[in-house]
Every structure is written in structure tokens, then in C-alpha cells.
Amino acid sequence: MVHAIRFHQPGGPEVLTWEEIEVGDPGPGQVRLRQTAIGLNFIDTYHRTGLYPLPSMPAIPGLEGAGVVEAVGPGVSLQIGDRVAYAGGPVGAYAEVRLMPADRLVPLPSWIDDKQAAAMMLQGMTAQFLLRSCHPVQPGETILIHAAAGGVGLILCQWARKLGATVIGTVGSDEKAELAREHGCTHPIVYTRENFVERVKEITDGAGVPVVYDSVGKDTFMNSLDCLRPRGLMVLFGQSSGSVPPVDLGILAAKGSIYVTRPTLFVYTAKRDDLMTSAADLFDVVHSGDVKIDVRQIFALKDAADAHRALHARATTGSTVLLP
């Protein structure tokens, strides 16, 4: 029998249970994918807690994985045995075997191993659209990245350095500061003892930055606005500390006619062409060595609850994968 991690009601990591499931044959446009590695992402915890409610219960969390095609439905060009990866849904990645829409799968080059693929797709393509589309980073810019030692953060730091930017990054400890520095962050700020607004103003000679990339949310949002130069862009792409409370939009005028966006990978890769372009861009920077994907934690899929606990405790750095 095939197993998966499911939860029957929202809650803490303890609601995640290892259960037998039925996986049928693929229908038109689908493949049956035997997964070899699954990516762990903070959005998985939002689904588990009900912050981002899923449409039905019991539910299988997870939005990212890699594996081998073991059956194809009508109208599918992929072949049995093809290695593929995906990110962004549909939800249900925490499973040994699953059905997937073929048009959401990206064929993997031979030089990418399965753990690396599962660790890089969602976080890497998120970094791609943030740096290349949401705010196209230019050489000579100084930018601010929160959670710089996290999975997306480490990729953002490396990729921004390749693009010629100077990176300021917030981290929670000296160890994480050193890790971020090793990955391209010129100015790590340990937020537990340093005021990041004051440090950003100091580093930029009072000018502020053109863009802030913020996946933390409630704890950093308002202060991040004070880090922006006039007409700068606040990019809120996560909320690991909680949802940002309602904001009077008049504050955007008061702080310099600044902009705010809340983008998602799902929208930026909704079209097949955009998905493939984003993946190709990511593969290029990884293959060149400009961006290294650090798989720093590995858990058995059946121990997904422990992985969620580590994520909540901020005990992880870089990428984490679950192995069926």
C-alpha cells in the first residue's frame, strides 16, 4: 500500500499522521508520480494550521517534490521513467505516490539529483520571480532581505550577488549571520540585538533601499517600510511571524510614496511558458555554480511532524527535504 502524511483537522504538528491511501490511475493530462524527495516549506505549516484553509479534509499537505513518472494518462507527452519536479501545487506532496497534472511538471536535467530538485523548485523559483520580475534587481543596488539564512533567503542572497547587488540581510544569530555572509550577504544584521532600521540607514548613508524582500510579516513589516527610499517597493511574500494587521494606506504616502505588493509563485508561474522560463533560469544559475542549493536537513516523510516542529522553532537553515 501507498502511504502519505494526512491531517483530519487543522492544528499543531501533532495532527500530521502517517496513513495508507489509495492512488488511482492517471486520467487525461495526468501522470502518476512515484516521489523520491519532497520539499518542506513554511506554507505547508499555514495549510496545516488552517491559516490558509484547504478545501476538504482529510488533507495531504505539501507543494513541492521530485520523482519518477510511473504511469501516464491520455494526452501526456511525458514518458514512463522520466525524472521530473514541481512546485506550487496542486497541494498533496507529502505522499509516496501521487497524481499530478502533467503540465505542472518540469523535466529534470541529469546533473540535478532528486534531493536537490525537491529542495530548489519552490524556493528557487520564488527567488527567481522576486529578483527578476517583481523587482528586477539592477547592478549597484543595495537591497534588504529578511530571514537571509532561510531556504529562500540563502538563494536570494547568492542570486542577488550574481546580479551585482549589495545585500543587507536580517538573521537571528551569529551562526546564521556567518551562513548568510558565506552565501553573498555583505551586511548581515542580527535582529535580536541590532535595530535593523538604524543599520540599514547607516549602511545606505541615510538613503534607504529600493526594495525589501520580507517573508517574516507581522514582526518586520512596519519597520521595513522605514528602510525604503522614496518610491521604494515593499515585497511581502510570507508571514512566518504572523499576518500583517490592517494598514492605513495613507502611511504609504507619508513614508515616501512607497509601493507594497503581496506576490505568490502560483500567479507568476500560472502559465506553462512562465513556469518553464522560471525553471530554466533557476537551472542556469545552479548549473553555473552562482547559486548553490544547500540541503541542510533531511527527515523521513513519516516524521514530517518533527520537521514542522524544527521549522517553527527556527532550528533550520537553508533547505529541508522529506524522503519517502
Describe it for me?
Residues 11-322 form the Enoyl reductase (ER) domain. Keywords: NADP, Oxidoreductase. This protein is an alpha/beta fold and 324 residues long. Helices cover 30% and strands 26% of the residues. Helix 2 (114-134) crosses helix 3 (151-162) and helix 2 (114-134) crosses helix 9 (272-287). The longest helix is centred in the middle third of the chain and has 21 residues, at 114-134. It starts with a strand and ends with a strand. 45% of the residues are buried.
Sum this structure up briefly.
The protein is an alpha/beta fold. The chain is built from ten helices and 15 strands.
Helices and strands, with pairings:
Blueprint: E1 2-6, E2 17-21, E3 30-39, H1 42-49, E4 64-72, E5 83-87, E6 97-101, E7 106-107, H2 114-134, E8 142-145, H3 151-162, E9 166-171, H4 174-182, E10 187-190, H5 196-203, E11 209-214, H6 221-225, E12 228-236, H7 250-254, E13 259-261, H8 265-268, H9 272-287, E14 295-300, H10 304-312, E15 319-323
Parallel strand pairs: 8-9, 8-11, 9-10, 11-12, 12-13, 14-15
Antiparallel strand pairs: 1-2, 3-4, 3-6, 3-15, 4-5, 5-7
Helix pairs in contact: 2-3, 2-9
Class of the largest domain, according to the CATH hierarchy? Alpha Beta
Described by strand count, sense and barrel closure, the largest sheet is:
7 strands, mixed
Strand and helix order: EEEHEEEEHEHEHEHEHEHEHHEHE
The count of strands amounts to 15
| Structural class by sheet pairing and helices | alpha/beta
Number of helices: 10
Mean pLDDT: 95
Into how many domains do the coordinates divide? 2
**Amino- and carboxy-terminal Cα gap:** 13 Å
Helix share, percent:
25-40%
**CATH second-level architecture of the largest domain:** Alpha-Beta Complex
**What share of the residues does DSSP label as strand, in percent?**
25-35%
What is the CATH third-level topology name of the largest domain? Quinone Oxidoreductase, Chain A, domain 1
CATH superfamily of the largest domain: Medium-chain alcohol dehydrogenases, catalytic domain
